[in-house]
Amino acid sequence: MTGTFVLGSRTVKRLGYGAMQLAGPGVFGPPKDHDAALAVLREAVAAGVNHIDTSDFYGPHVTNRLIREALHPYPDDLVIVTKIGARRGQDASWIPAFSREELRQAVHDNLRNLGLDVIDVVNLRAIFSVHGPAEGSIEAPLTALAELQRQGLVRHIGLSNVTPTQLAEGRRLCEIVCVQNHYNLAHRADDAMIDGLARDGIAYVPYFPLGGFSPLQSSVLSDVAQRLGVTPMQVGLAWLLRRAPNILLIPGTSSVAHLRQNLSAAELDLPDDALTALDGA
After folding, report:
1. What is the pLDDT of residue 213?
2. Pairing mode, if any, of strands 17-18 and 10-13?
């Protein structure tokens, strides 16, 4: 097994589950199969997953209500992480929601829909560009989130979709327990950030660990997978687990079979020559 890492004040297994794909197409509206969505969540926890990533803007409100229906009352060791900083338009658009009042409302929405009194970790998602991290001060929204932490509604704070400059700014303002950014075998802009966070014992949680909504198209990945008799996705996840000890994975799926496949990546031992080939991909 790939072991554990500390996330805030809790210890979690390094392979978790991301709930985003439980919502409808475009992360909007209800799931196409409600009962299947509940089954995936229950199977994840039954298989030992104790780190679930979600947000009330998935749906909106859809994934959090599914999590509550499937799993509440929650197991003692389950850590639920959410994120705030956006809201959804009627047309499924993603709209920045960074004001003090919007952030306060978002935390209360997450608490209510998840059925919690306090959220373990809340990530502040920076949306200064639709294309990924972009510079801009996060001081005002982060200060508002820290206020909610002092009120006892949030235990720990993380950051999502941030640049190194924003991470540094955030760490000056409050304790940051994790960073959730886009990173995978083919998208490695955060290499230096990951290594720096590892030295400081801070978790790094890559989203789109498999390249987005479809598997990474890489001949190296396919070759290694074929040789080991596994899927390219399992290889991609196993590579991430080997990349750094502070990486926590949250692959998402709406299928129990696919969930089991993803979780089995924790047992996948990549030979040295395969690692070398993947590192150079």
Report:
1. 40
2. unpaired
